[in-house]
Amino acid sequence: MKSLFVCVRYFLKLEIMSRNGLRHKGSDVVRRLSGTASASAPVVSIGTHDGKFHCDEVLACVMLRQLPQYSNAQIVRTRDEEILKTCEIVIDVGSVYDPVNFRFDHHQKSFTHSMSTIHPGKPWTTKLSSAGLVYAHFGRDVLAHILDMSKDDEGFEQLYDKIYEDFIEAIDAVDNGISLNEQSMRYKVTTTLPHRVSYLNPSWKDKNPDAWPAFQRALALVGEEFFDRVHYYADDWLESFNVVREAMDSRFEVDPSGQIVEFVNGGVPWKDHLAKLEKSLDIETPILFVIFPDEKGMWRVQGVPVEPESFALRAPLKKEWRGLRLKELEEISGIPTIQFVHANGFIGGAAERESVLKMARESIISAKTEFKNKVN
Angle of helix 55-64 relative to helix 130-147, nearest 10 degrees? Predict the structure, then answer.
C-alpha cells in the first residue's frame, strides 16, 4: 500500500509540473543536487522557494541531504503550493510550521520559535530560520551520521550545542533581520557566510537569470564550510575540553595566585572551555593569563578575554612593553629571552618558560595597581 501511495504521489508530481510548464530543460524548479537515484527508487523531494536564495535554506538543504532518507533528494525551488504539496519536506516557504507534516517555514506572523522553545532548557532565544528549524529537528541525526557517533556518546550534546551557538545561530539572526547589537557598528563585516551566499545570486542585470547553477555553487560553499566546522569542533574543540580542565585544576602549581593557566603541550582551543569551566567550577578569582609553547618551541603568554569572542582583556600585558621587540624590550623589561609583546598587549613571547611566567606575573601586578589607582 505504501509503495502504491509513493507511485501515485510521484506521478501526481510529474503531472502538476507538466501542467505548469516546469519540466523543460533549464528549469529551476526540479533538479538533482548530485548523484543519480536508481530507476526503481522513489523520487524524494525537498521543497524550498525560488527566486533569490539565502544562506538559511541552502544550509537546511545541505543538512537534510546528509540523512539517508534525503541523500538522493531532488531540490524543488518553487512557490507553487500545489507542487510543494507533493514534496516530502518543505523548508523556508509556504507559511506553515508543522513538523508532523514536515513543513518548516518561519516567515508567518504566528511563528516565534527559538531553540529555547523547541528544546526547553536550551538558552538561545534567537528566532529560528529554516536552518535553525532543520537543525532543531534533525541536527542530532545529521551530526551522528557525519561523525559516525552515537547521540549517547560523551560530549555529543555539548557538540550539538556548540555548532548551533557558533555556526547556525548567526545565520538564523541574519535571515530574521536581528542586529548583532543595538549600537552603530564601527566597521562593516561583509565576508560572513550569509554575505558570500548572497553574492552568488545572479546579477540584477541578467534579463534571463538561471539561478540553479548559482544555487549549486551555494550548496557547495555552505556544505564545505559546515563540514569543516563540524569536524573542527568534533576533532579539535571537543577533545580540548579535558586538556583545559586538567590545566585549570593544576593552575595553583603554576602560580600561587591561581590566575595563570599553563598548557604544557601547546596551545589548544581554550577560550570557550575556560569561560564555561570558571562558571561551572565556581571559580571566584578570575584567570588572567595562559602560557604555552608554540609549534616552534617558543613560549607564549596570552591574556584572557572578557568574553571568548571579545578583544577586550581582563588584564593586558604591561603597557610599557607593548609594541616592543627583542633587545629593546629585554632592556626595558629586564626579562631574559623576551622576544615581543603585541601592540595591543594581548600576547607576547619569550624563548623560555620562566620568562613568560614572569611576564604574566608582572602584568598581573601592574593591572591590579592600575585598577587601584582608578578606584582611588
Answer: 30
Are 266 and 292 within 8 A, CB to CB? yes
Q: What is the CA radius of gyration of the chain?
A: 26
Which residue type occupies 335? I
Helices (H), the chain: 2-19, 55-64, 81-84, 115-118, 130-147, 156-163, 169-175, 193-199, 211-232, 240-249, 251-254, 271-280, 326-333, 353-375
Question: How many alpha carbons fall within 13 Å on the CB side of residue 322?
Answer: 11
How does pLDDT run along the chain (376 residues), one tens digit per residue? 444 444 444 444 444 444 333 433 333 444 433 334 444 556 899 999 999 999 999 999 999 999 999 999 999 999 999 999 999 999 999 999 999 999 999 999 999 999 999 999 999 999 999 999 999 999 999 999 999 999 999 999 999 999 999 999 999 999 999 988 878 888 889 999 999 999 999 999 998 889 999 999 999 999 999 999 999 999 999 999 999 999 999 999 999 999 999 999 998 999 999 999 999 999 999 999 999 999 999 999 999 999 999 999 999 999 999 999 999 999 999 999 999 999 999 999 999 999 999 999 999 999 998 877 776 5
User: For residues 143 and 122, is the Cβ–Cβ distance under 8 A?
Assistant: no
Sign of CA dihedral 111, 112, 115, 117: negative
Burial class (CB in 10 A: 0-12, 13-18, 19+), 175: buried
**CA dist 20 to 17, 156, 311, Å?**
5, 46, 55
Contact of 106 with 97, CB cutoff 8 Å = yes
- Tell me 311's DSSP state: S
